[in-house]
Amino acid sequence: MKRLCSSLTTTLLLLLSATGTTAQTATNPVIFADVPDMAILRKGNTYYMSSTTMHMSPGLPIMKSKDLINWELTGYAYDTLSTIDELMLNKGKSVYGKGSWASSLRYHNGMYYVTTFANPPNRTYIYTTKDIEKGPWKAISFAPALHDHSLFFDDDGRIYMVYGNGRLMLAELEADLSGVKPNTTRVLIENASAPAGPNIGLGAEGSQLFKVNNKYYLFNITWPKGGMRTVVVHRADAITGPYEGRVAFQDKGVAQGGLISTPEGNWYSYLFRDYGAVGRIPYLVPVTWQDGWPVIGVNGKVTDSLPLPASRGYNPGIVCSDEFNNGKRPLALPWQWNHNPDNSLWSLTQRKGYLRLTTGRIDSTLLLARNTLTQRTFGPECAAVTAVDVSKLKAGDCAGLTLLQKNYGWVGVKVDVDGSRRLVMMNAGNGKPEEAASVPLNQPVVYLKAACDFKEKADKGYFYYSLDGNTWQPIGTPLTMAYTIPHFMGYRFGLFTYATKEAGGYADFDYYRISTSKDGNTFKKQ
């Protein structure tokens, strides 16, 4: 299977109509999936975007587009951020909700730069390459972690980072990017939240700095108490200031991002919206210029449609089906492991046409299990199915298909101490996992399905099983999905195996197929 799946487009928003036709213009949100903290640049006629995937591995995804609507994954800036215990799910530690956060994406003098920060291990990371689509990426890191920073190459050759929360800082970097130059850190804006009023819940952060027509424009998000996520923009004639600021946008909580222009000279602001359990979903909002200020939106509002090319149809690029018939590594690009994997315990070759997940240690819960393989869920509805051979699981083993977040749910197989197998639905919707259903299983292969309803933030998950792959039976109770801050990520589909008694058992997953309907029985192959 090729690593590159085709584009995830606004068909995830509109899908195919009953007549088989698609919308003729793009619509908001441009991606109905968890793609937060976007940073976008344009090189010629091609746009590149980075985003946040925090505790996932590989991380810091790079996507490309020719039209700002149809995006496809090209790779990741890193395979492994660090090997600290928290990222390895060792000793009961994790980095759920942490890992690498908001990135900055730049092109300068023939080189691409994408940066992020992580705490732990309290470091700032800079990745560089001459080929953003193929790599390889060179890694540089230094302490401390500069929060929500924006990398900026100024015209005089100096390199800066703007960072912070509420009180924004400016630091000059060493020419080789190895760290902050001594005695160069200064307060840039004492209270960047001030334009949004005195009653602030979230201080201004998410900095993205641009230079347009010889002026510097700094975009931030802030959140007034009792209000909504708000875009604040400051401008100055010099990077060091002084800056004047104003509220630039308040609508539907669509905020945090920056500016991008098209080759034709049209401007947009790329922002995202918290949308419940599916995660933080990207919007494009038209921008005009008035008196040297960016004016975001049409009459101050998000537009439902956009004067951009229509979707090319449902042929996704940041999610994909997989028959696991590649026969070799690597996995298809949309796959990410929950934390760093143990690469000795998964295989696409030990059984041709299958993904084998082998247990290597004892774990007490799914959230601590190594080698859970995930992809994004997406809206407004979606479902995933898999077929799994559980004949080689050992007593105490669990394997199946999950909707992964802190309040997770899963359908799969448990092996009891006597070796008998049961189909089980686990529901942790109230924060504590409970066995909601159990059905004896007397065959080695079982078919599993998980479905999501994100329409109007319904945020419900449903689980099913089949003994023949055709006739499906619901199992357990609906999962009340919630976007929890401890995980800080939209729900993920996940394939998993873990041991509670003895390591060494394994499950073989035959395929993973996705659908744009929670109720449909037609699932797209690769």
From TrEMBL:
Any single biological process term in GO: carbohydrate metabolic process
Name of the featured protein: Beta-xylosidase
Species in which this protein is naturally found: Filimonas zeae
Keyword hit for Metal-binding: no
UniProt GO MF annotations: hydrolase activity, hydrolyzing O-glycosyl compounds
CDD domains: GH43_FsAxh1-like
UniProt keyword terms in alphabetical order: Glycosidase, Hydrolase, Signal
Family assignment from sequence similarity: Belongs to the glycosyl hydrolase 43 family.
Annotated site residues (Important for catalytic activity, responsible for pKa modulation of the active site Glu and correct orientation of both the proton donor and substrate) in this chain: D148
Residue span, Beta-xylosidase C-terminal Concanavalin A-like domain: 321-514
Residues annotated as catalytic: D37, E205
Lineage: Bacteria, Pseudomonadati, Bacteroidota, Chitinophagia, Chitinophagales
Signal peptide boundaries: 1-23
Keyword Hydrolase appears in the UniProt entry: yes
Pfam families linked: GH43_C2, Glyco_hydro_43
